[in-house]
Amino acid sequence: MRSILTFTVTAAFAAALPAQWALLTPTTSPSQRRSGAAAFDAANNRLIVYGGVSPTPSVILPETWSFNGTWTLLSPPGGTVGRWGHSLVRNTTNNRLVTFGGRAPTINGYASDTYEWTGSAWATIPTPTAPSARHLYGLSFDQTRQVVVLFGGRTANATLNDTWEYNGITWTPRTLPTTPPPREEMAMVYDVGLHATVLFGGFDRSTNTVLGDTWTYDGTDWVEVLATSSPSARYRTATIYDSFRQRVVLFGGFDGTNIAHDTFQFTGETWNAVSTGSNVPQAATETLHGYDPVRRKFVLFGGYGGTFSNQTWEFTGSSTGFFSTFGTPCETAAGEATLTSTTPTLGQSWNLTINNLPVDLEFALVTLGFSNQTWNSLPLPFDLAPIGLPGCNLLVAADVINVVLASGGTAVHNLAVPNQPSLLNLTIFAQGVLGDIIGTEFAFVGTTKGGRAVLGN
Predict the structure, then answer these.
(1) How many CB atoms lie within 10 A of CB 110?
(2) What's the pLDDT score for residue 2?
(3) Strand runs (DSSP E) across 247-399, as ranges?
(4) Could you tell me the strand order of the sheet in which 288-292 lies?
(5) 156 vs 72, 134, 371, 386, 448, CA distance in Å?
(6) Which pLDDT tens digit goes with each residue over 406-422?
(7) Is-contact 390 447, C-beta < 8 A?
């Protein structure tokens, strides 16, 4: 692929170190707590940690701390009120942090207010409409559509499964064709590479059900992902999106009986267990956690693991490449043509294989690009009616188009990936457009799903 040799990325080289958790020993630290929230303040390059509950006797905490390798209690300490059971996300449009509701202003109260962190203080945002008062909901920020997404949570009487969006002015309820079952304390985070919110697990207190399903939401509908190698059913996990390595990371959680201490990564179709050894946080539920993209660390503070904690841990993941598919294929007479891949790795051959082609099919066009959102200013997906495939979509930018001959129902595309450190974690999108030669004419007969490859080491 010609473009891969000239494409420039700013990410620095990361050594192929094993994934690991590390316990830090800061000189100053917040007190023991659980069920607060954290998010990254990009304007000041620091993680903001807000709220939570102290050990017995339980006290709701109004404190706001920052962490950039060192803990600092900010002044004024906290917001107008303390809160717990809330979530915190960063609006990438204005670099403000957004939180909603939670348990406030008392430890047993329920709130439906919206607050934003301006960089130096908390500001109340009066909204014309808002979700009902609740806590333990899921919250993400959809960077593609520039809205905060809220799902579910717990009111005083019920576990919910409604979806709301906040545009910086007001909250809007979404009526969708499909919605996940009710839940609270789920994992929920926006995956920039997938352009979708990822939701996993949770607990339905109304039915006493611990959940282990995976869903994605792109603003159109919730779609259940039948992910392989999924974590066991659990809730109260710590979950972030690692923007450097371009994958969701999940740690810990509670299955109703036992606390888990395992680490998983989600790549779009599959949850992969991560081997980290035995040196892991023991307080693995109800933690205050976030991702620091400057230091490239998953930061985890406090939480509960039989006792309350005020430990600070950091996770550094390995940059192993991965490949996943997305979108809807256009089937041929033989059915769906599948797109599979070897692990895309620097310095190695990357092989894309299209299987289940009609045995007499002549060729496939393999399209490779750096986006699955636009191509030459055209929005994707793009209807392929101009080449005789109405209703079939081009799902990826066709920055490079290679012709691959098919044989016996299979077509294989080989690409030598340079051993160039600046290409680490580069995303390349791929798709097969399937063609045949009828007489002296070319005819296109179908497409594969889109593929998303992240180059690893």
Answers:
(1) 17
(2) 43
(3) 247-254, 259-266, 271-274, 288-292, 297-301, 312-316, 322-326, 338-341, 349-355, 363-369, 374-375, 378-379, 382-384, 389-394
(4) 20-23, 312-316, 297-301, 288-292
(5) 34, 7, 44, 55, 47
(6) 999 999 999 999 999 99
(7) no
Tokens of 384: 């392929």
For residue 394, with 0-12 CB atoms within 10 Å meaning exposed, 13-18 middle and 19 or more buried, which class applies? buried
Lookup result for tokens 């403000």:
96
Q: Give the separation between CA 317 and CA 321, rounded to whole angstroms.
A: 12
Question: What is the distance, to the nearest Å, from the Cα of residue 190 to the centroid of all Cα atoms in its chain?
Answer: 4
* Residue whose tokens read 């839940």: 183
- Helix (H) or strand (E) run with residue 162 in it: strand 159-166
Q: Return the pLDDT at 76.
A: 65
Going from the N-terminus, what domains does the chain have, and what CATH number goes with each? 17-316 (2.120.10.80), 322-454 (2.60.40.10)
The parts of the chain modelled with pLDDT lower than 70 are 1-17, 76-80
pLDDT, position 127: 97
Structure tokens at 383: 């209807």
What one-character DSSP code corresponds to residue 60?
B
- The token pair at 298 is 């998953």
E strand or H helix at 5: helix 2-6
Alpha carbons within 13 angstroms on the beta-carbon side of residue 93 total: 13
* pTM metric for this prediction: 0.92
As a whole number of angstroms, the distance between CA 105 and CA 96 comes to 22
